[in-house]
Amino acid sequence: MSQSLTGAGKVAGVVGAPVRHSLSPLIHNAWIAGAGLDAAYVPFSPPATGFKALVEGFRGGAVCGLNVTLPFKEEALALADAPSAAAQAAGAANLLLFREDGRILADNTDGTGLLAAFAQQAPGFDPAAAPVVILGAGGAARGAAAAFLAAGVGEVRILNRTLARAEAIAVSLGDRVSPLALHQAEQAFTGAGAVINATSAGLSGDGGLDVPLAATPADCVVMDMVYKPLRTPFLAQAETEGRRTVDGLAMLIGQAVPSFTAFFGVSPPSGVDVRALALKTLGLSERI
Ligand code: NAP
Predict the structure, then answer these.
(1) What does the pLDDT average to over 146-165?
(2) Beta bridge partners of 157
(3) Which of 58, 92, 117, 128 could form a disulfide with 63 if both were Cys (CB 3.0 to 4.6 A apart)?
(4) pTM over 0.85
């Protein structure tokens, strides 16, 4: 939060349930302070049935915008008057902007964040060079598939525990998407340029996915969207196999950048190391 918040200050926030452990307030408020903005970024956690009332209450611009996290991303898209192409392709919105004329714009910056994370932590990675494998078929997987298709990938292989959900993504995103079952991982990993865990397996230290990352090519990049813990069992296995890795915190910060710009009309200040702040909050060393 800005140290000099006035009545004219801009307010944005994040809405989710739960939202208590979200790192977004830490990231955005550090950028607000670094840029010296008259602004604040606050967490909102409505009851499961209260999301619509909260969003409708902000219509007209009392709050300039919201990031949206689980479980409200699909509902956020449905409530918007003007969804972006990225939000429509993802079937979910992680960003709502409240215009003074009463309209609500929806966007999805998760795909931008994902590609930014690859650019930062796997320099030289070319999303169009080889098939990309996505594990999972929830909103995050759908958004990742849409982002890679927009970046020119020739084939996205979506593997899910529940095959029907992978098939549904293929139906909506087109014939460059191949749906497969999780037990077909070895086949799917052959020739892959990247493998991304977009399941919630591995979250909060559970066992994670049991997939044969050794079957990926030596130059395959392995990414996990989960960032608690940051070094998930999945990324640990990838490192053991000698693969380059990309972590979920880089994606979280990557999706926050365009959100901040959309809220406050300026880019995040370059001198604020929000990754170091987030690592400290997670109780981790800055060298990770
Ligand atoms: P979601 O809609 O709930 O989807 C969860 C997916 O995980 C489904 O495909 C589900 O398979 C699969 N899954 C859950 N437990 C599994 C297990 N034990 N074994 C195999 N598959 C399992 O969630 P989402 O919104 O897509 O998010 C997925 C993950 O990405 C979450 O951990 C979320 O926190 C993370 N995420 C991170 C960022 C970031 O910025 N780093 C951004 C967005 C999301 P079924 O269909 O078979 O149930």
Answers:
(1) 96
(2) 133, 178
(3) 58
(4) yes
- Average pLDDT over the chain reads 94
pLDDT at position 67 over 80: yes
Spacing, Cα 91 to ligand 1 middle (Å)? 15
Cβ 136 under 6 angstroms from ligand 1:
yes
**Atom number, ligand 1, closest to the C-alpha of residue 142:** 26
Output the CATH code of domain 10-108+252-282: 3.40.50.10860
Q: Among the atoms of ligand 1, which is closest to the Cα of residue 162?
A: 47
Domain with CATH 3.40.50.10860 in the chain: 10-108+252-282
Q: Say if ligand 1 is within 6 A of residue 258 CB.
A: no
Compute, in angstroms, the gap from residue 138 CA to the centroid of ligand 1: 6
- Quote the pLDDT of residue 203: 67
Catalytic residue IDs? 73
